[in-house]
Hints:
By secondary structure, chain A is α+β, with helices and mostly antiparallel strands.
Amino acid sequence: MKLSEIGEFGFISRFSPLFASLVPESFTGIGDDCAIIPQNGKEDLVITTDLLIENIHFLRDSVTPDQLGYKSLAVNLSDIAAMGAAPAGSFLSLAIPADTEVEYLDAFMKSYHAISEQYEVPLLGGDTTRSPGNIAISVCVIGKCPKNTAKLRSTANDEDIVCVTGHLGDSAGGFKVILEKTAMTSETGYLVNRHYMPVPRLPEGRLLASLPGVTAMMDISDGLASDLMQILKASGKSGTVDLDKLPLSEMLEKVSFEQGWDPIELATAGGEDYELLCTVSPSHFKDVSEHFFSTFGKKLYPIGRINKGQPSVQWIREGREIIFVKKGFDHFK
Amino acid sequence: MKLSEIGEFGFISRFSPLFASLVPESFTGIGDDCAIIPQNGKEDLVITTDLLIENIHFLRDSVTPDQLGYKSLAVNLSDIAAMGAAPAGSFLSLAIPADTEVEYLDAFMKSYHAISEQYEVPLLGGDTTRSPGNIAISVCVIGKCPKNTAKLRSTANDEDIVCVTGHLGDSAGGFKVILEKTAMTSETGYLVNRHYMPVPRLPEGRLLASLPGVTAMMDISDGLASDLMQILKASGKSGTVDLDKLPLSEMLEKVSFEQGWDPIELATAGGEDYELLCTVSPSHFKDVSEHFFSTFGKKLYPIGRINKGQPSVQWIREGREIIFVKKGFDHFK
């Protein structure tokens, strides 16, 4: 049997039960954006790691080394944001073909440094080695949060309001611009930039984790449809999403109209938004939402509800349930 | 300019000064076996990461998935051992070609689990993705040690005795057996096993770090010649190694004699020994050495001295200095 027949999640489910008994009860292991290791009476440690492979996650021809250096750290910071934690340090491992230009690597590292400086994340270690083929980039980020405040996927409650911190689908639109070589305009350029330079929602994550009533949280990396299912499965709930409420940028709407794309498909199945997806108890929603707006000058968008029931998403359009098949990426299929 | 012209250490030296100002003063960053992050009044956190690339670090035809799963974690545990710390959790990221047999991956994970269980290291997370070419394995291990006890490379003193925890060159001999397809005997089999199944010296590292007089420590991964230079550079010292004192296994001596290999070259330049290299003050050496022997029933081998002077190694054979050029691996050259 080939790996492609069972997929990424199929593979993980084969070995993760084997390892479960080794995890101390106070730890959170496989299955959330970060692992959580309790440190002391005051703080918990959160850790995340991501692997970026050339020709799978990026094409060297269509991403600059600056963008790549930025994004390598940004996507890991997004996982730290999803826990409501603050980053404390990063580790960068690179496998590089020997004929790579040093100037390319200098640009990569300069940009990795710029985002490290922006978010005050020291680079503490890593590994560099030769690669016989593609570039491989492995980043690990360690973060900290006040004890027992890290937000999990498994803690959504019935009736909670499903929210997102910003526009969805821009990154997938940007990726389509790149693939289809759509003419560059200020709007398509905006989308491409959202694809290559996602903003990790660190302050948003920290605020949300500190407010009463925010129950579950994760970042949207595989697409809303796939990622909301992660919360629903982990929490043992079903959910409803009102497609008319999905926040779409004017730029995505304009480019989608011109190109004949379905922006809702991009916003649900596209992936790499790196906005935060959270659930908020209905009695706290008004306070949370006002606090969010007064702090960041932007809306926390309510897009759906958590319900009792088997893990599944009901998609609503113009008040009626519709069927929606795409479920986001599975890297092996 | 190509990466191959400047090598791995050349590349690292281009960017590490840029990042130095971001590292808090109480942290230890790039340049040791692990990074150190202080946690609280009692404990420090140590973190290490390693990247293993198919066709660079291993050939799929000549290593079983069991050996590969074991070694992926073992080499990282060796870095934790080198600090004198205890492992607290691991993170495993895999990039895998889609046509890989699931049975191959099951065997890899079963063996990764066996060593995780042996050393009580929970697998806490990671990332899995498709690879267009080679398998890439990135492992990160987190460990803990009592506050301010982690052993560094930079703290060797004049007159210290340079010691190693076990036989050198076996792993390099085993690698030669594999490359040269030497006939399998109990001796060549022993060497191959030492190459694929290195034992992380965790209890040895913890004991040494707890004893007064042990000044610097690291693990031998690139070979004695290269790794001792790391201690000498970090400590601003020179060193002497008595080649007649290098501990060689009977198996290595026997196979080397039969095959016409130079075991001393394998023991100094070969790499992947994963024994610990430490420096011990002369006034404490007797106590440390006796304590080591009574705990583990094996010798702590004194092989040389730390001296004042520019970082360099003097190699002594039969009481006279000899010139020795090989310096171990540099992955880009």
